[in-house]
Fold each of these.
Amino acid sequence: MKSNKQRRLEIKAKRLKRAKKLLELDTIHQIKVLPQGAILANHEELKHNNTYGFFPEYYVDVSYTCCDCGSKEIWTAKQQKWWYEVAKGNINSHAVRCYGCRKKIRDEKARQKKHMEEMAEKEPHSNEAFFKGPPKRIKPDRSSRPVRFCG
Ligand SMILES: [Zn+2]
């Protein structure tokens, strides 16, 4: 019996193989035969793009390599439709990071935001001025110095 993880890996490998082939597909001009798993694009929902280019007629699963961890990933047709048509992503944008790496960035941003909110609510230190840096340097008055001549 295969474990769930093994089965998931097999399914992923199969989809990756298929997505690699689909990369060469011209989704803008080839509409006669829809490839397996293709999802039709709704051009009404793509109107937020200010472009002279063409919109795709459909989306297909595409493979990509995560730019952070280098893992081979699939950007599914369904995810693309959501990104371009629901989230109104730019038509020229593509998936570059895997879910894990995106989550890491999202979590880090959330952590920083939380920290800043906590700091804003914190009572200021009794000697707050001390932490705001050293007092501004006062330029020495050079007018009273004796003039030295050279040579
Ligand atoms: Zn990654």
Amino acid sequence: MSKRGHIPLRTCVGCKRQFPKKELLRFTRSPEGELLFDERQRLPGRGGYLCRNPACFQEALRRNAFSRPLRAPLRIDKERIEREFSACLMPKK
Ligand SMILES: [Zn+2]
């Protein structure tokens, strides 16, 4: 067994597998109640995590899994959030 205990793990809402927190995309709910990706993982409030697999993103959308960890109703503008998700996958300059 490797010593992984000190690496914070979070569960992807799409595939339910655990990953080191820093490898995941964090999402939260904006003050207006909209789904929002939190690229720097610094926004306050409840958050959930998603891995970078587009299939997980689609699955989470389909099952409405984004609202569960946030424990609040969520408005999702599919087109906008798909754009945001793609932007999060782009390598940063
Ligand atoms: Zn996943």
